[in-house]
Amino acid sequence: MRSEKLERALGHTFSRRDLLRQALTHRSHGAEHNERLEFLGDSILNCVVAALLFERFGALREGDLSRLRASLVRKETLAEIAQSLTLGKFLLLGEGEQKSGGHSRPSILADALEALFGGVYLDAGFSRAYAIVAGLYEPLISAIEPGSAAKDPKTALQEILQSRRLALPHYELRATRGEAHAQEFEVECRIPSLAISTVGIGASRRTAEQEAAQRAVERLAQ
């Protein structure tokens, strides 16, 4: 496996090459897939992001910190980070997933990135895994404005519309795609009084709604 480019982008060279291979192996490719590593990496990711937010934003309450963490560890955010690493090029997928575009599917990319975090932990310990996650998330955390980012997009949109005495937005599920274990949902957010319509796509209906709401907030800010 020619993975040197990925390892350089990630910031870690694996001593145990079997861990790297497993982290990049989707369940459609074989029995030694990445789901167990993903489970481990998910816990590590949540711990590290929580610690980073706790240290950076000393004035925020628990609820605000929880909302920030949720926005940072959601599948869509993970997929964006994975894309910046060109992670999809290194995935090992079954024939069906290859044909259906699995190399660029957000849910598969997000799971593989979490699996890599788990693999780094087993390969070099928690301090190394912490450093990798912190390095990847530093730009995102530095860009946070606590006053606005503490609220999730749906709440922020609702408050904006209420302040203008406008009706609340309407969310409608437009499409569901993919297999049961890797579905994507497409949701439309409509604000008829302002003739605004935005679309969000996510690994769950809720995350798709949040993405659509975020795009509506951005439209209102223009």
Number of helices in the DSSP assignment: 11
The CATH class label of the largest domain is Mainly Alpha
How many angstroms does the end-to-end distance come to?
A: 46 Å
What's the helix-strand series? HHHHHHHHHHEEEH
Number of strands: 3
Work out the radius of gyration.
19 Å
* Biggest beta sheet summary: 3 strands, antiparallel
In CATH, what is the homologous superfamily of the largest domain?
Ribonuclease III domain
What is the average per-residue confidence, as pLDDT, rounded to a whole number? 89
Tell the overall outline. globular
The CATH architecture of the largest domain can be given as Orthogonal Bundle
The strand line-up of the biggest sheet is: 1-2-3
Structural class: mainly alpha
Compute the number of structural domains.
Answer: 2
What fraction of residues sit in β-strands? Answer: 5-15%
In short:
This protein has helices at residues 4-10, 17-23, 35-56, 62-73, 75-84, 95-99, 106-124, 126-142, 146-149, 153-163, 205-221; strands at residues 170-177, 184-191, 196-202.
